[in-house]
Amino acid sequence: MTLRLSFHDFSTQSLLLAILLLLSACSGNPTSKPPLLSDETRVFHQPNAVKTPKLNKILKQFNSASAEQQIDLLPAILTAASREQRWSVASKAIDLIATDTLKVNQMIDYSLAASKLWLQQRNFNTIQDWLNNPVLLNAIPLMTVDDQIGLASLQAEILFVRGQYFLSFKQRFNLNPAQLSATQQTSNRQAMWNCLVALSLVQIEEHLSKNQLPEIIAWLSLARIHHQTGLGIAEQGRLLTAWQRNWPNHIATRHPPFTFPLLLDPSTQKVNKIAVILPLTGPLSAAGIAVQDGIMAGYFNAKEHDWQPPSIISYDSHQQSVEKIYQEIRQQGVDLIIGPLQKDTLKKLASLSPNVSVIALNYLSETNINNPLIVQFGLAAEDEARQLAEIARRNGHENAIIMQSDADWSRRASYAFREHWATLGGEILNHTVLSASKNYSAEIAQSLLLPQSQARHKNLEKLLATSIEFTPRRRNDVDTIILFANSQQAKSIKPLLAYHYAATLPVYSSSHIHDGIEGNTNRDLNGITFNEIPWVLADNPIKNNIHEQYKNSKQLGRLFAMGLDAFYIYPHLPQMQQASSHVFFGKTGRLTIQKDRINRELQLVQFKRGKIKILTPSIR
């Protein structure tokens, strides 16, 4: 890491310039952005904000201090600016700090403040460089125990933010509980559990297959039980009881880091009768039947695992109005509604103000649903787009080009990506809506500014009155391409990117580029990173025994998986609604609830040699 200005190089003129820059920057309000560390109190015991000097106060002291005093105040300016999210001030201050002159008692504050700034900039390599800097490493033995714990917690938090969940877990596992306060122990255990919850079931199994300490095996085994929501609450309860017998002295036995609905006796569940509202005839019957088959597969699988599931009544929303269906539902004493599938039918149902819980199988983005009993669930492209924005920024990309088809889902995904990308500090340099395939080449060339390069070449030839050998150059300010298109379209677009000198640019896309068919035709998609649902990526007992149409049809298979999740998620709804951190591990993704909406997080994969390969985050 490059060391910054030393005291002797810090001239009076540079100080005056720094003062002017800092004071001019302090007048603006901080930009609203998502929190950078998931929980700062897990990193350090933060001082009371009321007692902590405000940035403006420190800047006034800075302005009237001597040159030597100003140097001493720079770390405090960085800390205050970072705490108040005054990033422009923090960025200027950090450039004036010589890290080799920091005192030991300043190292922790500097590490936290600098890391928050670099996280905001998504500058992960700089964070890693600092955490491995000899200046910091040499100071660790001289730090107080609290500061050493704070530094270890910071390192764990950075690993978590980067997606290195198991490494983050081990970093926290290695903290000595005897050196932590009761509050810190509770917070650290919850952070450890969050790391395990973030792992996929496949990753948990991989770590269990390796030589681990018994305590780590216990944690991983507990996480595996938590992931197996498809077993039903009765079977999960038996597995949990067996785990507790095997690990009676484990910290998670004494202090469970989660709430399990499976701890309840299935017979005490409030849901005894479910009404399913789906289009079982008419133009949408294939979709409706696929969802219903998924629900019923979950029902029969639950019975096989000794769970006494609720009875199910199906209603055809194509044959009956939702008003008439709801009247019958009230007479039948239904406890839960799953459906409807169509947006207009959902709007009508919402207008009836149902007094029973509803898992709606679509989203009303244009209409607010004020009924807390209605939870919206679907296979929204927007969820995938927002996750792609997170992944791309985590990987250090900042300047993106969006290329999308003219389909409605692609338009919605592009809008969601743009909106979330902006909150993460990214820039959209170009947004191209591709038309017919015959126009792809020209439209891609235009988005990469190749015509401008060719025009400059022609002007130069005209000026020099001679022919010049020339290779067009694409714009060099872009560092990633975001593609929203289906599989067939993407197979034409990806080779054209290489043809137009963009072969080295990382490409991110949604699950729509995956048609589910393995073969050589997917070689044109090599290198594209995209997100995909667990149902597609892994076998399971239900999937192995279903009708072939749900294995061979991309769309029907996903709808089947949505029906399966809609059935299995209902016992978990109270916990999910109480805490947005409560995760249901479904076949359509890692599901959480925010407000009245079930959000999905998918697995990250990439095409390699025409086949999909599950990706795991890397440090660099």
Description of the structure:
The protein is of the alpha/beta class and 620 residues long. It is built from 28 helices and 15 strands. It folds into 3 domains: 7-162, Serine Threonine Protein Phosphatase 5, Tetratricopeptide repeat, CATH 1.25.40; 269-379 and 541-590, Response regulator (Rossmann fold, 3-Layer(aba) Sandwich), CATH 3.40.50.2300; 382-532, Rossmann fold (3-Layer(aba) Sandwich). It has a 7-stranded mixed beta sheet with strand order 7-6-8-9-10-14-15, sandwiched between helices.
What is the fold-level CATH name, i.e. the topology of the largest domain?
A: Rossmann fold
CATH class membership of the largest domain: Alpha Beta
Q: Name the poorly predicted regions.
A: 1-36, 44-50, 261-268
Shape: globular
CATH architecture of the largest domain: 3-Layer(aba) Sandwich
User: What's the rounded overall pLDDT mean?
Assistant: 83
**What is the total tally of β strands?**
15
Distance between the termini: 15 Å
List the strand order in the largest sheet: 7-6-8-9-10-14-15
Main sheet specs: 7 strands, mixed
Percent of sequence in beta strands: 5-15%
Number of contiguous helices:
28
Q: What level of helicity do the residues show?
A: 40-55%
CATH H-tier superfamily of the largest domain: Response regulator
Gyration radius from CA atoms, angstroms: 28 Å
Number of domains: 3
Secondary structure category: alpha/beta
Could you give the topology of this structure?
Elements: H1 12-25, H2 40-43, H3 55-64, H4 67-83, H5 87-94, H6 104-120, H7 124-131, H8 134-139, H9 145-161, H10 165-173, H11 182-198, H12 201-208, H13 214-227, H14 233-246, H15 251-254, E1 273-278, H16 285-304, E2 311-316, H17 322-332, E3 336-338, H18 343-351, E4 357-360, E5 374-376, H19 381-394, E6 399-404, H20 408-423, E7 427-433, H21 440-447, H22 450-464, E8 480-484, H23 487-499, E9 507-509, E10 529-532, H24 534-537, H25 541-544, H26 549-552, H27 554-568, H28 573-578, E11 584-586, E12 589-594, E13 597-601, E14 603-608, E15 611-614
Parallel strand pairs: 1-2, 1-3, 3-4, 4-5, 6-7, 6-8, 8-9, 9-10
Antiparallel strand pairs: 10-14, 11-12, 12-13, 14-15
Helix pairs in contact: 1-5, 3-4, 4-5, 4-6, 5-6, 6-7, 6-9, 9-10, 10-11, 12-13, 13-14, 16-27, 19-20, 21-23
